[in-house]
Amino acid sequence: MTEIRKATYSDLQTIQTFDIFAGDRAKDIEQRECFVEVVQERAVGYVVFNHSFYLNPFVQFLCVAPPWRRQGIANWLLAY
Fold first, then answer.
1. pLDDT 10s per residue in the chain (80 long)?
2. Structural domains present in the chain
3. pTM score, two decimals?
4. In what order do the strands lie in the sheet with 2-6?
5. Using CA atoms, how far apart are residues 64 and 47, in angstroms rounded to an integer?
6. CB-CB contact of 58 with 52 (8 Å)
7. Whose CA is closest to 18, among 49, 60, 59, 63?
């Protein structure tokens, strides 16, 4: 079973195992701009967005763990 929810600090360690982008996901989590796709209680992908683009949501980062790629995770995160 999968779900999409706001990321928490408990997701940070897992996110860091597959995160390919520079930056501070802890800061994104703190600002409540990071959302994760969770499969069996483990984050398998994340999206970070902010409202810096003319106050509209802007996708800043999107990353999916390698074993979960090409299975629709990124599409689900964008649709969310």
1. 679 999 999 999 999 999 999 889 999 999 999 999 999 999 999 999 987 778 888 899 999 999 999 999 999 999 98
2. 2-79 (3.40.630.30)
3. 0.90
4. 2-6, 34-39, 42-53, 56-64
5. 9
6. yes
7. 63
